[in-house]
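Quick one: co-fold with NAP.
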Amino acid sequence: MQEIIKKLKASDKAFKTWKNVDFKARQALLSNVSRLLMENQTPYAKLITKEMNKPISQALAEIEKSAGMATYYASIENVLKTQKVATGLAISEVHFEPLGVILGVMPWNYPFWQVLRFALPTVLAGNTVVLKHASICEKSGDAIQKLFKDAGFPKGVFTHLKISHQEVQELIADPRLKAVSLTGSEAAGRAIAKTAGENLKKCVLELGGSDPFIVLDDANIKKAAKDAASSRLQNGGQTCVAGKRFIIHQKVYDRFVEQFLIEYKKYQSHDPQNLETVLSGMAREDLALGLMRQYKTALKHGAKILRPLKKEGPTGFQPGLLEVSGDNPITKEELFGPLGLVFKAKNDKEALAIANDSPFGLASAIYTKDKKRGQFFTLGLEVGSVALNQIFRSNWQMPFGGRKNSGYGVELSEATLHEFTARKSVIGSM
Ligand code: NAP
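Sure, here it is.
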């Protein structure tokens, strides 16, 4: 822990200077981050694939998306400028001040994107960052630390710590650490929120999801089925905002399932370093075993096999599809791998009820040509994001976050700059 405290102190020291650096000067460094990401796109992508096994084409896309986000934050207006308020007093203004050292605890599924999604706006707001990356992605963590250094950030503004769960808890309790952001599972969210709560520290939690993907009887079935397979199986099925529960109107159920299976078959597991590969093995063997356990539990509770989940080697699968109803306990769990659940709904009202019958509330997708029906779901879904007739994909210009057990707090867009800043109200006269 001694070494960690030394780095925490250095980060706290760096904050005292960094917080006074002009917003535009901070943005210039973010432009460098964007440029360096693209210059090193291939080696970074190879590293991602080596560490967590995703197909290289998807790792390349992850780096490109991260660079786009860096450019966005490098060019936004300063939303943290002092705001004057017309109260009638000579002075009445709101200042936005960075908090200090912020801890990011990050997952392995998008090893660059998730870290940068948290870290770039956090340092732009004038904070410094310490990172605990997923254990299997420590080399990515090192590479990101070097990226910040090469982009010109002063020492201590971004520090990668290789620490255990217990050390994360101790760090949160340290008075020099001001807040924490976790992207990860519900279990990790509960553990981190508990310690943050005990120490009265703010936290942002971006947790798991079991997103509904709703197809109504007037939808373009071919497109919906193609998108459904792509949404479920991107990143080896290990995406928080993947469609995981496919809720299909009974009138088009058979047609959709037939088409869904045709699309599903296109996803065969291959070497992740091959540019043509669209599906590779999962990130860790224990995760693959966990998915197989969930599959067996689902079957025990009456799920019907539409396509069996078949193990191929230690982490690979032939993707599976199950038909289920709401009373199967599996429908309340997140399936973080290549296994989808399909529900049949009698009508729109029942489809919405199934969609909301979940402990999670992250994103969603609805396929219909009817504006009114689209609106019914947009208003009724208890989620953070809705996509109409397309796969949900986060967009750096739009706020992103979950509801219910998917967490709380906002990432992306200008809104996230307020997550780790304090408002200071100043009134009176001089
Ligand atoms: P995870 O097991 O919860 O791990 C996430 C991070 O938390 C890792 O760095 C992990 O470290 C650390 N961690 C886990 N338990 C901890 C504890 N008790 N105390 C301190 N640190 C702890 O999640 P994952 O398997 O990496 O990622 C998959 C999960 O993340 C899924 O549920 C997915 O839906 C969710 N996710 C959510 C979003 C979103 O934006 N909402 C985005 C991506 C992923 P170790 O690696 O050392 O265990």
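If it helps, The chain has 13 helices and 20 strands.
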